[in-house]
Amino acid sequence: MKELVEVIAKALVDNPEEVVVTETVKDKATVVELKVAPSDMGKVIGKQGRIAKSIRAVVKAAAMKEDKKVIVDIM
Predict the structure, then answer these.
(1) What residue ranges do the domains of the chain occupy?
(2) b/e map of 54-65 (b: 16 or more CB within 10 Å)?
(3) Segment 47-68, tens digit of pLDDT
(4) How many whole angstroms separate alpha carbon 18 and alpha carbon 2?
(5) Residues 40, 18: contact at Cβ < 8 Å?
(6) pLDDT of 12-35, one tens digit each?
(7) What are the tens digits of pLDDT across the range 35-45?
(8) Which residues pair with 34 in a beta bridge?
(9) What CATH superfamily is the domain 2-74?
(10) Full DSSP string of 19-58
(11) Whether 52 contacts 74, CB under 8 Å
């Protein structure tokens, strides 16, 4: 899941070298944290959070294939 979030985020931002994705397992869920440059935050979140929702939807669909629960946090 980490790689999926990283590929999507790097395609959206102006500074792909500043994209940092970390993955931790907590209880029964995997938490994927996405950090981008402050100037790119708007590109990752989108108007009214539409892009962030889309990223979460894609990751959720991929996680369901593997029968896992994944939470995407944008920092």
Answers:
(1) 2-74
(2) ebbeebeeebee
(3) 999 999 999 999 999 999 989 9
(4) 15
(5) yes
(6) 999 999 999 999 998 889 999 999
(7) 999 999 999 99
(8) 21, 74
(9) K homology (KH) domain (3.30.300.20)
(10) -EEEEEEETTEEEEEEE--GGGHHHHH-GGGHHHHHHHHH
(11) yes
